């Protein structure tokens, strides 16, 4: 969870900073990622001012993370926020068996999806950086 938190600090989004980390079956870190715009895209002036308008362009941390590995290579993902419904579906498609998160996302269907597919979805509120400013 600490790695996910550190990754979230890189987010370009001034309103919602989300980070994620992936571990393989030997508990080695495969990668970290954060929410933001597509690599190489420079946002025009004023882009970040319209919170609702920019949301559709944001790539979620979990999606960016999945771009770093192939299906079946990762067993565990830690994210600073519960995956949204679409990200949870993507994590299922990548064969992730365990997902840990810090902050609850109430609009997500992740718990129901995890239950159906037998994926461990667990909130971890206390971790080494849990007292740090988020």
Tell me the layout of helices and strands.
Blueprint: H1 2-8, E1 19-23, E2 29-34, H2 51-54, H3 61-66, E3 76-81, H4 85-93, E4 98-103, H5 110-117, E5 120-123
Parallel strand pairs: 3-4, 4-5
Antiparallel strand pairs: 1-2, 1-3
- Average pLDDT figure: 93
| Assembly status | single chain
Number of helices: 5
Compute the number of strand runs.
5
Which class best fits the helix and strand makeup? alpha/beta
The biggest beta sheet is recorded as: 5 strands, mixed
Task: Report on this structure.
With 134 residues, the chain is of the alpha/beta class. The chain contains five helices and five strands. It has a five-stranded mixed beta sheet. α4 runs parallel beside α5. It is globular and about 45 Å long. The two termini are 13 Å apart. The mean pLDDT is 93.
Keyphrases for this structure?
globular; five-stranded mixed sheet; 134 residues; 20% strand
Give a quick rundown of the structure.
This protein is α/β, with parallel strands linked by helices and 134 residues long. It has helices spanning 2-8, 51-54, 61-66, 85-93, 110-117; strands at residues 19-23, 29-34, 76-81, 98-103, 120-123.
């Amino acid at each position: 969870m600490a790695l996910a938190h550190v990754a979230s600090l890189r987010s370009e989004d001034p309103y919602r900073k989300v980070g994620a980390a992936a571990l393989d079956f030997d508990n080695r870190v495969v990668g970290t990622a954060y929410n933001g715009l597509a690599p190489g895209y420079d946002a025009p002036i004023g882009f970040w001012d319209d919170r609702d308008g920019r949301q559709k362009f944001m790539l979620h941390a979990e999606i960016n993370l999945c771009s770093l590995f192939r299906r079946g290579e990762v067993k565990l993902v830690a994210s600073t926020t519960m995956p949204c419904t679409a990200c949870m579906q993507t994590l299922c498609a990548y064969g992730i068996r365990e997902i840990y998160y810090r902050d609850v996302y109430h609009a997500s269907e992740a718990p129901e999806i995890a239950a159906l597919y037998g994926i461990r979805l667990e909130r971890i509120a206390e971790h080494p950086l849990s007292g740090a400013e988020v």
